[in-house]
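This protein record is not my work; I was only asked to verify it. The record follows directly below this note.
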Amino acid sequence: MNRFHVHVAVNNLAQSIDFYSKLFGQPPARREIDYAKWMLDDPSVNFAISARGHKAGLNHLGIQTDSAEGLADLRRRADAAAPGDVLPDSGAACCYARSDKHWMIDPQGIAWEHFHTMENAVEFGSDTKTQSGACCIPLRAGA
């Protein structure tokens, strides 16, 4: 199963958690000092927020899949949409999770990630090489 992913950078995490918890009718599935994530079933969305000094607003969009095969299918779609511009990011530690993923930028300049999460991580992102304006997006994908 695939799940749509939205990541929003926020200025005030506590205020945003309160707002989105009321909006979604449930508390976050995961909450950290600088991050919160809701795994919604209706609609099927992985909605994440973080307060890590980035400009407030949409950070990136994506599709989360539950298998390596699903990620391979998403990679084929990404290659068709952005030939030569898809950046692999295997074993990435980001957003308190370890995932295999790849990134691309759409024609409007919005970063998209396709990812398969293997396990939770204790740190937000110990090995990410990010640009200043976006969470966990490798430099080349954000250029």
Residues 2-142 form a domain with the 2,3-Dihydroxybiphenyl 1,2-Dioxygenase; domain 1 fold (CATH 3.10.180.10).
